[in-house]
Design brief:
alpha+beta, five-stranded mixed beta sheet, 5 strands, globular
């Protein structure tokens, strides 16, 4: 459990560094939660996509901070950006060997928005053709064209109140370090 938590913290630090590099280009901005919600309303499918479906926004030219009071004006030219960041060695813009995870919602939003939704592949490792970190922006069509293989993975969250869903039902409970068998169907081996 501790290594899983450590990995999560490491991933968050990696994403933060990647975002910092991306924000070095003044066309990119992070918008607040209320502004993200307004963007989802302007897309026309506020219930279909969540606020975590994109990390940043990009404008064609640098503009002042996009916020709730001006997002409607900027919306026609906004591109939504979902970051995928790695510290692994990736040689160049070809992104050969880049491995990342994506959600179905990200792909759905990318399909809905076309070239207005970009995946930003950020490489933090400096062992590459450029000798420093770099990013490549791709539409979903380009991501799909470059994809060698993909797999589906289910991420599951159990209810937090099992009484609301009728109790825990049958299952096996193994308590290690104790010789008692607490499971309903647990027999002797």
């Amino acid at each position: 459990m501790a290594s899983k938590f450590t990995k999560s913290l490491s991933n968050k630090r990696t994403e933060k560094v990647g975002l910092g590099l991306l924000l070095g280009d003044p066309r990119f901005q992070v918008v607040d939660l209320r502004t993200k919600r307004r963007i989802l309303q302007l897309i026309g499918k506020p219930g279909s996509f969540g606020t975590q479906t994109f990390d940043a926004v990009m404008t064609p030219e640098p503009v002042s901070q996009i916020a709730l009071d001006n997002v409607d004006v900027h919306f026609p030219t906004l591109r939504l950006v979902e970051m995928k960041t790695t510290r692994k060695k990736v040689r160049n813009e070809r992104l050969e060997g880049f491995f990342f995870g994506a959600t179905e919602r990200e792909y759905e939003m990318a399909r809905a928005l076309g070239d207005r939704y970009l995946f930003a592949f950020i490489v933090l490792n400096e062992a590459n053709d450029y000798g420093r970190p770099f990013a490549v922006l791709l539409t979903l069509d380009e991501v799909l064209r470059r994809t060698r293989a993909q797999r589906v993975q289910y991420q599951v969250n159990f209810h937090t109140n099992m009484d609301e869903v009728g109790g825990v039902g049958s299952g096996w409970v193994l308590v290690f370090g104790d010789e008692r068998d607490l499971g309903e169907g647990g027999g002797e081996s």
